[in-house]
Amino acid sequence: MAAFGAAATTNTNPNKSFEVAQPPSDSVSSLCFSPKANYLVATSWDNQVRCWEIMQNGASLGSTPKASIAHDQPVLCSAWKDDGTTVFSGGCDKQAKMWPLSGNQPVTVAMHDEPIKEIAWIPEMNLLVTGSWDKTLKYWDTRQSNPVHTQQLPDRCYSFTVRHPLMVVGTADRNLIVFNLQNPQTEFKRITSPLKYQTRCVAAFPDQQGFLVGSIEGRVGVHHLDESQHAKNFTFKCHRDGNEIYSVNSLNFHPVHHTFATSGSDGAFNFWDKDSKQRLKAMARCSQPIPCSTFNNDGSIFAYAVCYDWSKGAENHNPATAKTNIFLHLPQESEVKSKPRGVQTRK
Fold it and tell me: In whole angstroms, what is the distance from residue 235 CA to residue 233 CA?
């Protein structure tokens, strides 16, 4: 039954996705799947890092909560070790934790002077990298208490993406800093975002030849690093409804087809093909924003969170009706496989 005063028309799950059991009690800040199996981790503003096992049975999905750990303050980011044994998380308590899922207690492996906004494990370097609002990147050997390298950034880290040897960092003031991780102490290139508004998310191309950048102003930029490819650069609008413009919160490449998903504060997620400049599928809008999303390791499951993201401030937050959900969508091949230009797609 709808809460008293709630609009009967609001549909949290218009795409009939599968619901993850026992979701967080506050908004979700990040989602990531194990690279080895269907274990999903979510971090949230209730200070928790939670893990579920996702089971697929034909065309249906189930979920079982497996374990959780707590930070002292809201958690903002998460990443898996490449062997699927360990989860890393960072957040507003200015530290990163390493959580071995075999049952061992989490240990603090990284510290910053301000909240940690982004985290990634780089298997090729056997290092953890953290990006913070203290305007630094730090690289960590998890067996040592001090960083092996601290890289100054021009401003606060809002987002980063790593596909070795490419790393792209989006900071405040629309800076995009490109690193070649074979020489992480030196900036490879610094670019001003092709988008006129604040950077929200970045995603490296699977072939490491460029990256996507999404902004708070319902727009995505497609950027190639090679100067000779700059004619292929373009931007496009998305996550808009008439004069209402919403943030692009998440950019996720499909691990097999190399198409990508966008998720936004309008409550929608869409699938796109950058090479043919087509939208492959527009999904129905949920009644709340989608702050984060991710594919599993083979692209057969797309996970997305539906919850308030504070994009319209406290006055739009109603604790009585605010609910957090994590949903699982099974992408059809027609939604995520690229099509030659000119082939009509059903939107």
Answer: 7
**Domain of 214, in residue numbers:** 18-336
The Cα 207–Cα 187 span in angstroms is: 20
Q: Residue holding tokens 């059903």? A: 346
Residues 6+ away with beta carbon under 8 Å from 192: 174, 175, 176
The answer to whether position 11 is within a domain reads: no
Q: pLDDT tens digits for 81-139?
A: 999 999 999 999 999 999 999 877 999 999 999 999 999 999 999 999 999 999 999 99
- Give backbone dihedrals phi and psi of 217, rounded to 5 degrees, phi first: -105, 40
Task: Flag whether 289 is in a domain.
Answer: yes
> What is the C-alpha separation between 45 and 93, in angstroms, rounded?
12
Q: Give the 3-state DSSP-derived string for the chain, with helices as H, strands as E and coil as C.
A: CCCCCCCCCCCCCCCCCEECCCCCCCCEEEEEECCCCCEEEEEECCCEEEEEEEEEECCEEEEEEEEEEECCCCEEEEEECCCCCEEEEEECCCEEEEEECCCCCCEEEEECCCCEEEEEEECCCCEEEEEECCCEEEEECCCCCCCCEEEECCCCEEEEEEECCEEEEEEHHHEEEEEECCCCCCEEEEEECCCCCCEEEEEECCCCCEEEEEECCCEEEEEECCHHHHHHCEEEECCEECCEECCEEEEEECCCCCCEEEEECCCCEEEEECCCCEEEEECCCCCCCCCCEEECCCCCCEEEEECCCCCCCHHHCCCCCCCCEEEEECCCHHHHCCCCCCCCCCC
pLDDT tens-digit readout, 197-234:
999 999 999 999 999 999 999 999 999 999 999 999 99
Residue 135 in contact with residue 127, Cβ under 8 Å? no
CA–CA dist 216, 221 (Å, integer): 12
Residue 174 inside a domain? The answer is yes
Q: Which parts of the chain sit beneath pLDDT 50?
A: 1-9
Tell me if 38 is assigned to some domain: yes
What is the count of structural domains for the chain?
Answer: 1
